[in-house]
Amino acid sequence: MEYMLLIKYGEIMLKGQNRPYFESQLIRNIRFILKQLCEFKLIKTHGRIFINIEKSLFSEEEIAKKVSDVFGIVSVCLVKEINSNLDEISKELENEAKKAYSEGYKTFKIETKRSDKTFRPNSMEVSKILGGVVLDILPEFSVNVRTPEVTFYVEIRKMSYIYYKQIRGNGGMPVGSAGKGVLLLSGGIDSPVAGYMALKRGLKLEGCYFHSHPYTTEQAKEKVIELAKKLSIYNNGFKLHIVNFTNIQLEIYEKCPHAQLTIIMRRVMMKIAEEIAKKSNAKALITGESLGQVASQTIESLNVTNLAVDMIVLRPLIGMDKIDVIKIAEKIDTYETSILPYEDCCTIFVAKHPETKPRIEKILLSEEKISINDMVEFGVNNYETVVI
Amino acid sequence: MNSEIYLDNAATTKPYEEVIERMSDVARFTYGNSSSTHKKGIEGHRIVKSASETLSNILHCEPNEIIFTSGGSESNNMAIKGIFDANKGRGRHVITTPIEHPTLINTVKELNKDDGSYDLLAFDDNKNLDIKKLHQLVKKQTILVSIMHVNSETGEIIDLEKASSLTKNLNDRTYFHTDSVQGFCKLPINLNKLNNIDLLSLSGHKIKGPKGIGALYIKKNTNIKCLIEGGSHQYGLRAGTLNTPGIAGLEIAAKLAYNKLQENYDHVRVLNDYTKDMLKQYCKDYIINSPAINSPYILNIAFSGIASEVLLNHLSSKEIYVSAGSACSSSKKHSKVLQSMGVDDKYINGAIRVSFNHENTKAEIDLFIKEVNSILPMLRKFRRK
What is the mean pLDDT of residues B209-226? Predict the structure, then answer.
């Protein structure tokens, strides 16, 4: 292939002694994506990862785009590798400059870095010489050091690298570097986005979905599996636990005050998710709850829901407006799936006037009428796992 | 042994084994383009010719009055748009009914954009389509009346003889189209006798034939424009390389169904009556939405106090397949057809369509009734909002 990929990563660089741990997690995640796209060699040098694509049906740019989705990456650059001598560098830069010019760029600058400080001339001088080379062959291509339309980067190491195409990554931390969490995935717009945000900070996810057959359809289940698939891109696959929730829901419906259905149902879901999380050695629950969106998301409701479990509950969307959540959902391609009109178990039995300011004492009193422990035990023993 | 019980034959059917074999044979060996002049092409052409002849024999028309399409939807689109485009010089008025398939009624509604107008026939007090209303609706500018043969949700059979001759009496230049997707090869159709019908849509996959193939009967001298422009295939009325495997499959299915039309009809009539008997015996609080004069192939039942979708989900998990209303429009909340028939709100959410084919058995109906009966009390107790 014509170009190699140069992967730059950000925050990980700031880590001290733990850096190798984060780096190796990042490399594992990059390999996972690359394996599906091409045959390659991955070369790790100081603070840099190079990918040599040996064989692929995809272009380097397509591969770079997909790799840039891996959390922890700041950018992926399409680089030319050459020997570290000025003649060869000049010659290759001529080609790249011609290409950039033909793509419509009118102004440029050259930025040179040397990790090999013994290389002569020094960085400033190299930039100057190379600028002259470009201007010689393309007199219309003008230099603009302040706001260039395109920057040619020249890195002089043992070998040298030239590039001007950079694809911005998603930033964040490598998935898996922060341990594991269980995401409560409903099929709506919010929970996949919450999952994405948790993934971004390095959590590896498993999902938990509550299925109320026959009140919820097979299509609703398929939809959640589809959402899990979209998240699996960032998660190196995905384990989705589908809990059989019908009997639990019917019992709550039968025995508890209708105004409290939603809140009690959510508490039971959290308890079951917590047990599943423990079994999977996960250390956190993640929900798509935000503040004030719907009745179940008042601070009182969140509080009562939260009291159902001991495990930490992360709510990455807590401070976000719906419109911002939708923007991310569109970016990660879950929005179109989320808005498919199949009802999930949260919407099938809803009171006309649900309790918006529940008090824990009252809820606990209502819960005495149902056998919560049995419910949780039933839930934990009645789920299927779909591995994506 | 296959344990599934398929009672959704108005949505689609499982093809005859003979159809599958014939299609794979044609795809494998007789793959020539029926327009090519070499031997391979002529082999393909023979398939098309033979199928045209078979369909024309079944419908009692001429082979060159049959155009193969991609199915009922395309046939309906072509009938409406083709007649409108070719005849809008003398009038832009179309009449149809509120119970048509969406591919038809939505196409008619679209004509508004072309300065077309349309009227819909209403129901009479017996919840049957009121054909007599044509007297008030057919005008000088009416270029087309389109009335379906068998309603896909309720199974109501329309008297095509009456509807088409009344149309012609009122305006002999008005074309008459019928969507017979649910009637073809299930009820006798003799276009020689029904000579006021100008266009008729049919489909392969409703009669245990292949999907993606259908036909439009266009009576000789009908002024119609093509829908798909291009080559000179099919008398210039539908461009595109002919789907010979599909056409061959359609021919076999039509032959098999037509040869046993009466036998199959009688068997299905028995099943339909048996289902109603069993319902009467075991179930409570339901109504039958299918009218008295109906195709036995379709039975529309509505249970009070349930959401049909939930019943469907339950049956589906037991590998029993029925549909809520019409499968093509079941994503909508209510059935437009049942609504326009004036079905009580108490029942409209709980309507399901059971549709048979001649391979269904009484034992299957027993299992179906048993499952419905076992889940109804729970569904009525725990109702969705």
Answer: 96
How far apart CA A341 and CA B344 sit, in angstroms, is 25
Based on the domain organization, do A371 and A246 belong to the same domain? Answer: yes
Nearest Cα residue in chain A from B314: A214
- Distance of residue B94 Cα from the nearest chain A Cα, in angstroms: 34
The domain limits of chain B are 5-13+261-381, 17-259
Record the pTM: 0.82
Nearest alpha-carbon partner for B14 in B258, B364, B298, B357: B357
Question: Is the Cβ pair A218, B316 closer than 8 Å?
Answer: yes
User: What are the pLDDT digits (tens) for B141-197?
Assistant: 999 999 999 999 899 999 999 999 999 999 999 999 999 999 999 999 999 999 999
Partners of A254 on chain B (C-beta within 8 Å) are 382
Q: Are A350 and B385 in contact (CB < 8 Å)?
A: yes
Q: Which residues pair with A80 in a beta bridge?
A: A162
Q: Which residues of B touch A348 (CB under 8 A)?
A: 384-385
Mean pLDDT to the nearest integer, B128-145: 92
Q: Is the pLDDT reported for residue A275 higher than 80?
A: yes
CATH of the domain at A271: 3.40.50.620
**pLDDT per residue as tens digits for the range B79-109:** 999 999 999 999 999 999 988 998 999 999 9
Burial class (CB in 10 A: 0-12, 13-18, 19+), A49: buried
The residue of chain A nearest to residue B312, with distances taken between CA atoms, is: A214
B185 carries an active-site annotation: no
Task: Identify the CA nearest to A180 among candidates A161, A156, A208.
Answer: A208
The C-alpha atoms of residue B256 and residue B254 are separated, in whole angstroms, by 6
Within this chain, do residues A167 and A82 fall inside the same structural domain, yes or no?
yes
Q: Considering the domain delimited by B5-13+261-381, tell me its CATH architecture.
A: Alpha-Beta Complex (3.90)
- Amino acid identity of residue A237, one-letter, is G
Q: What is the CATH number of the domain that holds A142?
A: 3.30.2130.30
Query: What pLDDT is stored for residue B328 in this prediction?
Result: 40
Residue A355 has pLDDT above 90, yes or no: no
**Before A121, cis peptide (omega within 30)?**
yes
Residues of chain A whose beta carbon is less than 8 angstroms from a beta carbon of chain B are 213-218, 250, 253-254, 341, 343, 347-350
Confidence band of A46 (pLDDT split at 50, 70, 90): confident
Measure CA B309 to chain center: 23
Chain B hits for A217, CB-CB cut-off 8 Å, are 309, 313
CA distance B314 to chain A (A): 5
Residue B375 and residue A214: Cβ atoms within 8 Å? yes
Neighbours of A158 (CB within 10 A): 9
In sequence order, which residues have a C-beta less than 8 Å from that of residue B209 and are 6 or more positions away? B13, B15, B16, B19, B249, B250, B252, B253, B254
Query: Tell me, what DSSP letter sits at residue B8?
Result: B
Q: For residue A189, give how far its alpha carbon lies from the nearest alpha carbon of chain B (Å).
A: 20
Please state which of the ranges A62-76, B106-120, B215-229 shows the lowest mean pLDDT.
B106-120
* Residue A310: count of CB within 10 angstroms of its CB: 9
CA distances from A221 to A263, A336, A338 (A): 22, 15, 12
Q: Tell whether the model's pLDDT for residue B329 goes beyond 50.
A: no
Q: How far is the C-alpha of B286 from the C-alpha of A173, rounded, in Å?
A: 59
**What total number of domains does chain A contain?**
2
Q: Could you read off the pLDDT of B351-371 as tens digits, one per residue? A: 999 999 999 999 999 999 999
Window from A63-77, A161-175, A272-286, A334-348 with minimum mean pLDDT: A334-348
pLDDT of residue B220: 94
Residues of B in contact with A213 (CB under 8 A): 313-314, 317
Across the strands, what pairs with A241?
A208, A385
What topology is assigned to B17-259 in CATH?
Answer: Aspartate Aminotransferase; domain 2 (3.40.640)
Minimum CA–CA partner of B315 in chain A:
A214
Tokens standing for residue B113:
């954009």
